[in-house]
Hints:
The chain is α/β, with parallel strands linked by helices. 42% of the residues lie in helices and 13% in strands. Among the domains are: 41-286, Type I PLP-dependent aspartate aminotransferase-like (Major domain) (Aspartate Aminotransferase, domain 2), CATH 3.40.640.10; 402-470, no CATH class. The protein has helices at 3-14, 35-47, 60-76, 91-104, 122-131, 148-154, 177-186, 202-207, 247-250, 277-312, 339-348, 378-395, 402-410, 418-428, 445-453, 456-470, and strands at residues 84-88, 113-117, 134-138, 159-165, 190-194, 224-228, 240-244, 255-257, 265-267, 318-320, 328-333, 354-356, 365-369. Strands 1-7-6-5-4-2-3 form a seven-stranded mixed sheet, with helices on both faces. Strand 12 and strand 13 form a beta hairpin.
Amino acid sequence: xxxxxxxxxxxxxxADDLPVHxxxxxxxxxxxxxxxxxxxxxxxxxxxAGSNGLDPTAFPSLLQMENELVGFAADLLNAPDEAVxxxxxxxxxxxxxAVQAARDSRPEVVSxxxxxxxxxxxxFHKAAHYFGVRTVVVPVGDDFRPNPWAMGRAIDGTTVxxxxxxxxxxxxxxxxxxxxxxxxxxxxxxxxxxxCIGGWVLPYAERLGRDVPEWDFRVPGVTSISVDxxxxxxxxxxxxxxxxRSPELRRAQYFASARWxxxxxxxxxxxxxxxxxxxxxxxxxxxxxxxxxxLALTEQVxxxxxxxxxxxxxxxxxxxxxxxxxxxxxxxxDETLDPFTLTDEMTSRGWYVQPQxxxxxxxxxxxxxxxxxxxxxxxxxLVALRDSVAAAVKAGPVVVDPGVVDFIAALDPARxxxxxxxxxxxxxxxxxxxxxxxxxxxxMAEVNALLDVASPAMxxxxxxxxxxxxxxxxxx
Length: 476
């Protein structure tokens, strides 16, 4: 292909993707609404796309940018002077490294564990799977927060890490960090605060006079915090910052190996080779916006959240699950309304919202990650919500065929075969043309309803099979 043809093909491929600008995609992307900020981030990514963060002595500009970005985050989160940090590829990698460092700091513990609320991000379960750290899961109450004393009682001699969220993703509420960290500190265990969503919002919310409980390094016992710059710092994908209270706490995060004839490998993250582009993009955006820029953007996004919450309160059939502490809103539906149909109806009206499956006896919900750019469209969003609720009520709930429910119940998630998966597709009417590959309907309510009747283990198995089927080579 010629260069123009390749770029034209790229634009054509992108046409079916969700929009990343305009504030109407309320999951996966975060939009400041500022074209100049977006431009400087993208230009910085392009300028450093060929740079390699593997060796900071070879690319000292990357080291300088990383130290400045970490310094900004440390000041933002009231870290002590001796605090240190690392820029990672995203919130999941920051969480993985926090768990790995906690485990490796306690080599004497034969079967390490970590105490987490049931609302902790799934990345902690991923870390547990990767690093052989057992999860001790503490239930949450009606306010979707864990009891800190229950967290404390769950700590034992195998515990290497205690986790709190600021806020938790599914419901958008801040855990009682002060009390949880005190429990961890009293038993000489590390405490990590997952602030990947809230870390770049809550400090500015506090400056704006909002009621924000202490959750950062001002809290005794908090030893590390993760905060994503590609979320509410509005930087390009994908960067996050992992901060430790001291160099000693970070040391176990590093990996070095001289056990081969090549160069001695030394890594601060799970990656070795890593493009300098995302780091440069994050540095450029943070440097451009600065404190005053983020203060203004935080005011916008919180105003949008308040308007959305107030508007939801005026729509029959839906309600806010719990008052949000930051920028995440979870919506519950009454018995007249199917949340998965509501999600489809919102998508058809140009607003992408995220379905959340039922869990631990609690019903399915609809999730919104609000951006600063959403403020300008809040009135349109609420009109779309009212119209979508009416359409969903008229359509009625999605009903999964009892035979399909029985089929799913009879499957073993640990031994799900390709034949089992194809049988489920056929039974649920999702098979499509066998020669054309996996076909999904334009509306996802039926698929989500099918997943919702499955156990968490079966959901995992079905989605792995689904992803495996989608991710196949495109060959001529």
